[in-house]
Amino acid sequence: MHIIVRLFSEITIKSAPVRKRFIKQLRNNLRDLLRPVDSSVRVSRDWEKLDIMAPSDDPELIQKVSQVLANTPGIAHFSLVHQYPLGDQHDVFEKTMLHWKEALADKTFCVRVKRAGSHDFTSTDLERYVGGGLNQHTEAAGVRLKNPDVTVQLEVKDDQLYVVEARRQGLGGFPIGTQDSVLSLISGGFDSTVSSYLTIKRGLRTHYCFFNLGGREHELGVKEVAFYLWNKFGASHKVRFVTVPFEEVVGEILKNVKNSHMGVVLKRMMLRAAEQVAEQMEIQALVTGESVAQVSSQTLTNLSVIDKVTDTLVLRPLITMDKNDIIDISRRIGTEEFAAAMPEYCGVISKKPTTAAKMADVLEQEDNFDFSVLERAVQERRLQTIDQIMADAEQSHVELEILEQLPDTAVVVDIRHPDEVEQSPLKLPAGQDVLCIPFYSLSSKAASLKEGGPHYLYCDKGIMSRLHAGHLADEGYQVGVYRP
C-alpha cells in the first residue's frame, strides 16, 4: 500500500523554516495516529508531500488508514497509488489499464497527468496516448474532457510512475501542534461543538471547559461529545476537560439579578471563571460558539458588554454563520445527533431579555452578586485528561460481563456512530443478531433491550460500550460488552 498525502495549500506558501516545521509536525501526528492501526505503517516526508507505506494491500487496513487521514488536520487530499519504475508511454498505458479497466466500463473518462522532471514526452502527449489506449481496449463509453464520469490520474516524477487508484479529500487546516492551545466553552449543542471542531481543524490544541448548570446526564452527554471530537479529529495530542460546578452561580443570579439582564450576567460570570481556568492552564484564548444575533445575548451591544469582563482573547469561529450552516457542518462531522439529543439544562431564561445592555446597568446588577459563590465554583472545578473523563464516566456499581466469544442467543448492539458502521460494518458469525442503536439514542431506545437477549454492546475501542453498558446495568438492564 502506498498513499501520497498532499499538504493544505496554506502550508505550501509558508516560509521555508515554517513549512518544514509544519510538515514535520504533520508527519509526527500521523505516526502517532497510525501506530495503533498497524505498527508496520511507515510515514516519510519530503518538501511537497508525505508518503505512507505499508507491506499489505489489505482493504480493511487501507480503509482504516484512510479514515485517519480524512480526519487529520493539515491534509488537503490524499491518493492511494501504485508505484512503478517509469517505462515508455506504452508501458504506462499497460500499467494504467491494469488498475482502471473494470472501473471504466460504460463510463466516460479523461486522463490527467501531473509530471515533474525531464522526459521525452509532455504531459499532454502521455494523456493522449494513455487515453486513446484505454478507449480502444476497455469497455469505456468514450473520452470526455469536460465533466467525465471518471478521471484517471497519473503522476510522473523523474523515473517513477504513480497510477492513482483513488483520491479522497482531507480536512485542510493546520496540523495540531503548530498553533497554540485554546479553551473551548462547550455545552454540547450545535454551536459549541462546531466551534470546537473549527479550532481543532485550524491546528489549535483544543481543551474543553464545561459549566454544569445542574444535571449529571447533561455532563455525561457533553463529555461524550468532547471525547468524540477529540478522538476523531484531534487524538494526536492529549487535551484536558474541565468541569466547573455552576449551580450555585445560577442560583445567585436568579436571586439577585434583574430578569432582563440574567443572560448577559451569566455569560460574564462564565468568562470570568474561564479566564481563571485558562490562566492556570497557561492558555491564552477562549473559544465560544456565539453567532451574531442568534439569541438576545449575542447582539453586538451585548457581546461588547460581555467581552469587557475579561482581558483574555475570546475567539468566536461562528460569529457570522447562519444556524443552517452550523447545523450542516454538525451533520458533516457527525455531531448533529449528539446536539439534537443533548439533555441540556439551563436555569437562567429571561422572559424579556435585553438586547442592548448598558454597562452601567450590568455593573449595578453585579453589585448585588456574591462573588464568593463564583470563586468557590472555580476552586471546586474538576480537571481531567480526555481519557480520564471516559474512564470515570464508565464506572458502574454492577460488574459487567465482557466477552470475546458470544453465546448463540446473544444479541450484539452496535452503538457506534452510523458513519463508522457504514465504513466498517461489524462482522459476526452467521445467524448472530446485530442491532444498530447509536449511543446518543440509547437512552430513548433502551426499552427495546428488554426483549430477547442477552444484549452485548459493541464499539471499536470498548470505551463507549463499557460506559453505556454500565449505565444500563445500573438501571437494571441485563447487558454486557462485546470485545472481539
List the helices and strands and how they pair.
Elements: E1 2-7, H1 9-12, H2 16-34, E2 42-45, E3 49-53, H3 59-70, E4 75-85, H4 89-100, E5 108-116, H5 123-137, E6 142-143, E7 150-157, E8 160-172, E9 181-185, H6 190-201, E10 205-212, H7 216-233, E11 240-245, H8 247-256, H9 262-280, E12 285-287, H10 300-307, E13 313-315, H11 323-333, H12 336-341, H13 359-366, H14 371-379, E14 382-385, H15 386-393, E15 402-403, E16 411-414, H16 418-423, E17 433-436, H17 442-445, E18 455-458, H18 463-474, E19 479-482
Parallel strand pairs: 5-6, 5-7, 9-10, 9-12, 10-11, 12-13, 15-19, 16-17, 16-18, 18-19
Antiparallel strand pairs: 1-3, 1-4, 2-3, 4-8, 7-8, 11-14
Helix pairs in contact: 4-5, 6-7, 6-11, 7-15, 8-9, 9-10, 9-14
**Major sheet details:** 8 strands, mixed
Radius of gyration: 27 Å
Query: How would you write the strand order of the largest sheet?
Result: 2-3-1-4-8-7-5-6
The fraction of residues in strands falls at 15-25%
* Number of β-strand runs: 19
Quickly give the structural class. alpha/beta
Q: Which bin fits the share of residues in helices? A: 25-40%
Rounded mean pLDDT score: 89
Low-confidence runs: none
Query: What global shape is seen?
Result: globular
SS summary, helix count: 18
End-to-end distance, in Å? Answer: 26 Å
